[in-house]
Amino acid sequence: MDKQSRTYQAYVQILKEELIPAMGCTEPIAIAYAAAKARDVLGGMPDKVEIGVSSNIIKNVKSVIVPNTDGMKGIEAAAAAGIVGGQADKALEVIAAVTTDQKAAMRTFLKQVPVTVKAIDNGFIFDIIVTLQQGSDSAVVRICQYHTNIVLIQRNSEVLLDHTAQETKQLCGDAAPAESGLTDRALLNIADIFAFADTCEINDIRPLLETQIRYNTRISEEGLRGDYGANIGSTMLKFYGEDVRNRAIAKAAAGSDARMSGCELPVVINSGSGNQGITVSVPVIEYARELGASDETLCRALALSNLIAIHEKAGIGRLSAYCGAVSAGCAAGCGIAYLQGADLKAVSHTLVNALAIVSGIICDGAKASCAAKIASSVEAGILGYHMYKNGQQFRSGDGIVTKGVENTIRNVGLLGREGMRETDKEIVRIMMQEP
């Protein structure tokens, strides 16, 4: 691929936009980020906090432990962490440097300061509005569409930043809403992704991917060593053996085990999700080690898997009732196939086969069971490739599978974005009824 081409430059930029470090589940961290920014705008600690969040934020924050809070869960805990110990300039690592005293201060803050949480629906699946008050002074920060996209900053009656009108325009049309400030994901397609990964100047992407390898390997290993969540990773190794296939599945699951239980190690995310970042990378890394692949080959395989996952998610949206681990696990299967010499045809069939197997997995929020869904998705990705190697495939007309990998990806996008809207609402209603 021509390095000067629009597509090449876009793919490099997309990787830079998506493969960023984050500590903790990204939805509560986004709340902490908004809260820390609002505290800075206010210029002091608030005596009242109001938080408005869209239903998908409620879903993804309800059951996950916020790191660096000594085990606290929920929207209120995430906001308190940002207000008391957050460093807004660190974005998705906003609470990475919290001190022991600040952890204790968070609990005191929640006892002393009223925090009100309400559901909002402004047409955005991803929407967070944090309002802090200190006497007669107030500060408002709004994050919309994706985790670091601050669209409104206001202090008292003075509007310091307002991109809300621009964001509202993005809601028009039948496609997934465009994300302002980010490179156009419509340029992504499997053929060009394969060409880019296979021929790109490796130093253009190496720093991003080396950080992903280092961070995501470390948290997966911590997940296997410790006692986190439902311990899906260590259970996989205990009962299904330690061949490379099972190690790839188990280590990806273990990273999620740790992350969903408040592990304070950072990960490099994909499509706004740490779980997806782990899923799309750790299995590929494990296979590369088993196969003795060079560092360059591993980077190319990771570029392929990361971009395929981003391509899949672009049509679905950041949050949905469609489990994001599915997109990442199927993409990991493509990266594993590439490591074993797969060409474009093999990668395309791997992806279609895998999507046909696991596209029915729902997202019911961030929590311990995410690790098990990751295990199933990575297994499907690997099976998808082995099916192709065995001369087998799912064909057009088999359910949502249709002729051509791009058409099948488009069908999955419609399923996740449009078809599962009511499912998403019902999931949130069910979750809110729990004691």
TrEMBL record:
Where the record annotates domain Serine dehydratase-like alpha subunit, the positions are 90-428
One biological-process term from Gene Ontology? L-cysteine catabolic process to pyruvate
Q: Which GO terms describe its molecular function?
A: L-cysteine desulfhydrase activity
Q: What InterPro entries does the record tag this protein with?
A: Ser_deHydtase-like_asu (IPR005130), UPF0597 (IPR021144)
What the entry lists under Pfam families is as follows:
SDH_alpha
Family the entry assigns: Belongs to the UPF0597 family.
PANTHER family documented for this protein: UPF0597 PROTEIN YHAM (PTHR30501)
Q: What is the designated name of this protein?
A: UPF0597 protein SAMN02745178_02357
Q: Tell me the lineage of the source organism.
A: Bacteria, Bacillati, Bacillota, Clostridia, Eubacteriales
